[in-house]
């Protein structure tokens, strides 16, 4: 099965707000075609759980669950990456139309396009070098035939380090401590609210620590998130020592048997030494109270700040052991290539991406869902066209067979 077909089968779906305009899924089942009606490729909305999915014990098969989950994830990435997708698809289509033959001019134009989309210089050079090699190896001469290889290579380049490193280090039977860091306004507090919601709906007992005692209103903001999601927040007054607040929060979390404590911190500039030292102190306090903690230090980066996000990450990485990136506001940029630059140039896995402002708009990062979001229309169109071609070829060969039989002398 082709790479595009696999992605389409796995993720094909439509954002929820468009769903209502589509036929309900049940009617997606085989319908007899009217005589004059040609078979059209079906537009599928992501499946929603219905009673029919559950057996008499109220259980759902793992396959059904995974299928529904993948479609919902696909729809989220597709909606969240809409701006980037318009940009990537349009530019790639233009390139393919302009340079029909695979040659150096095409590769140079492709390099330029990817660099402009924030993919990062080194990553682009590596990606395009691999494409040159692949084109030669497979003897691909038409740019059109390189379309799928380009998307496939983006996934490969992401995976080249370790597989699965985007998984969170969370274990049952211990207090897991997550520390959220980053500069002002990147989305730390919002991400904490979304994460709390996610883990709580997975059945975990989640608590929050209001470690941003610096910015006016920050404690209240976290308390609002706590109320909204229904999780407890430990806080002290504005101006108190963040390390002391987090220490208190750890004790509260231990005594209440929490599974996960997520600690907010003040937005800090990476070049302000005292703020960075304060972060180190917070980390030391956490480490003394819970062995091996913090289990995750998540650095929030705002995708709309492009290359600046990369330099923030480099500075944070120097002073603290960042275990993962949360790339927020991907929905707000047309340059979604920044994901690849971060991964490839910093070797820090992107663990979550922010695809909007709603509670469930924070999604675990996965390179396949990401490229699906970046190229969904192109992938769907490509698969539909090749299915139509395939059907036409089949019906032609059937016609020929019938004709052949007819002419065969008996
Ligand atoms: N569109 C969009 N907006 C987001 C996303 N994540 C966060 N935001 C918005 O970004 C703004 C800043 O979010 P905060 O969570 O307050 O950021 P912060 O890093 O805690 O800011 P400070 O506490 O001031 O350092 C808010 O308006 C959020 O709604 C996202 O994934 N998509
Ligand atoms: Mg905040």
UniProtKB/TrEMBL annotation:
<dbReference type="Pfam" id="PF02881">
    <property type="entry name" value="SRP54_N"/>
</dbReference>
<feature type="coiled-coil region">
    <location>
        <begin position="78"/>
        <end position="105"/>
    </location>
</feature>
<protein>
    <recommendedName>
        <fullName>Signal recognition particle receptor FtsY</fullName>
        <ecNumber>3.6.5.4</ecNumber>
    </recommendedName>
</protein>
<dbReference type="InterPro" id="IPR000897">
    <property type="entry name" value="SRP54_GTPase_dom"/>
</dbReference>
<feature type="domain" description="SRP54-type proteins GTP-binding">
    <location>
        <begin position="349"/>
        <end position="362"/>
    </location>
</feature>
<dbReference type="InterPro" id="IPR013822">
    <property type="entry name" value="Signal_recog_particl_SRP54_hlx"/>
</dbReference>
<dbReference type="InterPro" id="IPR027417">
    <property type="entry name" value="P-loop_NTPase"/>
</dbReference>
<dbReference type="InterPro" id="IPR004390">
    <property type="entry name" value="SR_rcpt_FtsY"/>
</dbReference>
<dbReference type="InterPro" id="IPR003593">
    <property type="entry name" value="AAA+_ATPase"/>
</dbReference>
<keyword id="KW-0472">Membrane</keyword>
<feature type="region of interest" description="Disordered">
    <location>
        <begin position="1"/>
        <end position="51"/>
    </location>
</feature>
<dbReference type="Pfam" id="PF00448">
    <property type="entry name" value="SRP54"/>
</dbReference>
<keyword id="KW-0378">Hydrolase</keyword>
<keyword id="KW-0342">GTP-binding</keyword>
<comment type="function">
    <text>Involved in targeting and insertion of nascent membrane proteins into the cytoplasmic membrane. Acts as a receptor for the complex formed by the signal recognition particle (SRP) and the ribosome-nascent chain (RNC).</text>
</comment>
<feature type="binding site">
    <location>
        <begin position="328"/>
        <end position="331"/>
    </location>
    <ligand>
        <name>GTP</name>
    </ligand>
</feature>
<feature type="binding site">
    <location>
        <begin position="264"/>
        <end position="268"/>
    </location>
    <ligand>
        <name>GTP</name>
    </ligand>
</feature>
<comment type="subunit">
    <text>Part of the signal recognition particle protein translocation system, which is composed of SRP and FtsY.</text>
</comment>
<keyword id="KW-0963">Cytoplasm</keyword>
<dbReference type="InterPro" id="IPR042101">
    <property type="entry name" value="SRP54_N_sf"/>
</dbReference>
<dbReference type="InterPro" id="IPR018247">
    <property type="entry name" value="EF_Hand_1_Ca_BS"/>
</dbReference>
<keyword id="KW-0175">Coiled coil</keyword>
<comment type="similarity">
    <text>Belongs to the GTP-binding SRP family. FtsY subfamily.</text>
</comment>
<keyword id="KW-0675">Receptor</keyword>
<feature type="compositionally biased region" description="Acidic residues">
    <location>
        <begin position="17"/>
        <end position="38"/>
    </location>
</feature>
<keyword id="KW-1003">Cell membrane</keyword>
<feature type="region of interest" description="Disordered">
    <location>
        <begin position="386"/>
        <end position="410"/>
    </location>
</feature>
<keyword id="KW-0547">Nucleotide-binding</keyword>
<dbReference type="InterPro" id="IPR036225">
    <property type="entry name" value="SRP/SRP_N"/>
</dbReference>
<feature type="binding site">
    <location>
        <begin position="182"/>
        <end position="189"/>
    </location>
    <ligand>
        <name>GTP</name>
    </ligand>
</feature>
């Amino acid at each position: 099965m082709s790479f595009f077909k696999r992605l389409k089968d796995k993720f094909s779906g439509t954002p929820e707000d468009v769903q209502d305009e589509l036929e309900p899924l049940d009617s997606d089942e085989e319908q007899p075609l009217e005589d004059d009606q040609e078979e059209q490729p079906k537009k599928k909305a992501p499946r929603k759980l219905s009673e029919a999915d559950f057996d008499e014990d109220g259980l759902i098969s793992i396959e059904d669950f995974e299928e529904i989950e993948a479609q919902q994830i696909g729809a989220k990435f597709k909606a969240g990456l809409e701006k980037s997708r318009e940009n990537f698809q349009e530019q790639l289509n233009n390139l393919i139309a302009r340079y029909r033959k695979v040659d150096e001019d095409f590769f140079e134009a492709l390099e330029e396009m990817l660099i402009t989309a924030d993919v990062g210089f080194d990553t682009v050079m590596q990606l395009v070098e691999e494409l040159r090699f692949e084109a030669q190896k497979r003897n691909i001469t038409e740019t059109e035939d390189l379309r799928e290889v380009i998307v496939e290579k983006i996934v490969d380049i992401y995976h080249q380090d370790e597989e699965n490193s985007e998984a969170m280090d969370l274990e049952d039977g211990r207090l897991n401590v997550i520390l959220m860091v980053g500069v002002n306004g990147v989305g730390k507090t919002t991400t904490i609210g979304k994460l709390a919601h996610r883990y709580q709906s997975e059945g975990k007992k989640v608590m929050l620590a209001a470690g941003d005692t610096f910015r006016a209103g920050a404690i209240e903001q976290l308390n609002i998130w706590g109320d909204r999601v229904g999780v407890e927040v430990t806080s002290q007054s504005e101006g108190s020592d963040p390390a002391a607040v987090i220490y208190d929060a750890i004790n509260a979390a231990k005594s209440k048997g929490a599974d996960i404590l997520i600690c907010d911190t003040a937005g800090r500039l990476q070049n302000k030494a005292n703020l960075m030292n304060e972060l180190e102190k917070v980390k030391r306090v956490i480490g003394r109270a819970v062995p091996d903690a913090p289990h995750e230090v998540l650095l929030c980066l705002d995708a709309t700040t492009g290359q600046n996000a990369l330099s923030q990450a480099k500075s944070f990485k120097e002073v603290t052991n960042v275990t993962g990136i949360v790339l927020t506001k991907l929905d707000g940029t047309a340059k979604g290539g920044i994901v690849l630059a971060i991964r490839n140039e910093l070797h820090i896995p992107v663990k979550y991406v922010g695809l909007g402002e709603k509670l469930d708009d924070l999604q675990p990062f996965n390179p396949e869902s990401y490229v699906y979001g970046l190229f969904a229309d192109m992938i769907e169109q490509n698969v539909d066209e090749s299915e139509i071609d395939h059907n036409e070829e089949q019906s032609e060969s059937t016609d020929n067979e019938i004709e052949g039989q007819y002419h065969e002398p008996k």
